[in-house]
Amino acid sequence: MEIKIEAIAIVKNKREGLSDDFWGGILTEVELLPHIPSASLNGIETFSHLEILFQFDKVSDATIVFSGHPRGNKEWPDIGIFAQRKKDRPNRLGLTIVELVERKERSLLVKNLDAINGTPVIDIKPIMKEFLPDSPIKQPGWATELMVDYWKNRQ
Amino acid sequence: MEIKIEAIAIVKNKREGLSDDFWGGILTEVELLPHIPSASLNGIETFSHLEILFQFDKVSDATIVFSGHPRGNKEWPDIGIFAQRKKDRPNRLGLTIVELVERKERSLLVKNLDAINGTPVIDIKPIMKEFLPDSPIKQPGWATELMVDYWKNRQ
After folding, report:
1. CB neighbours of A34 closer than 8 A, spacing ≥ 6?
2. Residue B49 within any structural domain of the chain
3. Domain tally for chain A?
């Protein structure tokens, strides 16, 4: 079941290399591609948070796995890819909730997007509180350990 | 920038017709397609919530808009498509946080997935609390009004 989609915007920031941690404080501009009209962003400034869907386009087919130890760390269990947020995954799709800082005419300034410069964006959705979990979140210990430095600022 | 992706799973539930409201209490099975190994779900039961990415495959190109009044309601403002979660959108991508009820060998039983029977699923990600918003959510009045019946049970 092949599905064809198209980038609708592109990530512009100062983050060039692939790396796992220290995404804190990064400001990113998400800029619409020429075929998408500016009106598609109208009213978006009335929301505080957005979901950005993107593709990890630098990931090659060869590194995609169906399961493995997160970050190759043998102290963490061998986990299925759909129980991880690792980038080397079928379809190479990424998804992050960001804070909207400013809407410009054809771009959005956002905080805390963990995607590098040049990444294709395939959708943007507003966060409504009714779509957030309404019961307590349970997650395994390895996930909490893995996230310790993720949103920290680089020293 | 064309991007080719493939369905990894399919939605199985009793919801056949397209409709806007009353998604409450619906149980859905998300079943892996044959080319995806069962191991890709290993350990997923250690998470309480998942993000399901899917495609609204019944939406035709003709109904896709870049902006409009949500649900055609003129009492609500004319809003860009990226400030709405409407299905008739570029790339027709859907995305919902669900509660995981049970992991079976090759499928997941989930609660509160707003996708109809037969919908192709393109990714599954675990919710980690570090990826949820850590500042208060702001949303416009029309969004709150629109959501009033969304998660209610059908009478």
Report:
1. none
2. yes
3. 1
